[in-house]
Amino acid sequence: MIQPRKSDGIVDLADLFPTALDLAGHPGAKVANLVPKTTFIDGVDQTSFFLGTNGQSNRKAEHYFLNGKLAAVRMDEFKYHVLIQQPYAYTQSGYQGGFTGTVMQTAGSSVFNLYTDPQESDSIGVRHIPMGVPLQTEMHAYMEILKKYPPRAQIKSD
């Protein structure tokens, strides 16, 4: 029996694919053999995390996109943004019905601690400069993956 527990480990919807295949008897490297070589498997096998044999998520980072562009990366409690949506660019209230604000690049070190500031209202990038190094390294590594496996769906934003 799986014991109930709480976790703030990172899980992505894409993790369900390799996890389900592992549970069905196709663990690890076998997953890559089940899809075309041009398909990037972004999911991580979370079987041990879901079944409780390992208390930690097997995913070290989560990547966020805006208009088809890599916008942010999260590692542990820290989230680093390079693109943001400015909801107050059109209306004073910021309520305009979904993702309709202006998308713009950040000026630099926009880092948020999601444990102490889940609304992402105050950047702590200046106070946590060392944390920016692994976040930026992860973002650049993922950008290299995207060069090898470019998105098939193109979103026009210009």
From TrEMBL:
Q: Its Enzyme Commission number?
A: 3.1.6.1
Keywords from the UniProt entry: Hydrolase
Question: Per the record's keyword annotation, is Hydrolase included, yes or no?
Answer: yes
Is the keyword Hydrolase assigned to this protein?
A: yes
**One GO molecular-function annotation for this sequence?**
arylsulfatase activity
Task: State the source organism's domain of life.
Answer: Bacteria
The record's section on InterPro entries has: Alkaline_phosphatase_core_sf
Top-level enzyme category: hydrolase
Q: What is this protein called?
A: Arylsulfatase
Which species does this protein come from?
Escherichia coli
